[in-house]
User: Fold this.
Amino acid sequence: MKKLRFAGILFAVAILFAGCIPSQTPSESTASAPILEEIDSWPVNTYTQFIPRPESGTPQFQIFDEEKGYYAITLEIEDRAQGEAYLQTLSSQGFREIAGESEKTAIGQIYRKDNLWLSVSVSDHALGIYVALEQDY
Assistant:
């Protein structure tokens, strides 16, 4: 139950930040529901190939919608410091911070690199990564 609560919180944060990230908008007739899956290893796909894999953490859930052009993953981490280390990794690999907020209990940052947008949320025991590829319209 605790894992599901963390995933729910991270998903909600990712969706809130998603409004700031461009994505493709399909017509109502072609719209599909996002797919939520429980996972236990780092996924390799169109979205994760462009981002660094966190050095620590256990993958828990992924949600994606290729039609709309986004992917999100949640990981269980030991402490907030592990999530902060991931944010430093992103910066060192050329991701530019666009916006962010840090509070006592959580951090939320938006990054961009080329046509890739990331929304990353960090709390004491969870790391959430939302990935969107900018589309040419």
Summary: The CA atoms of residues 53 and 125 lie 17 Å apart.
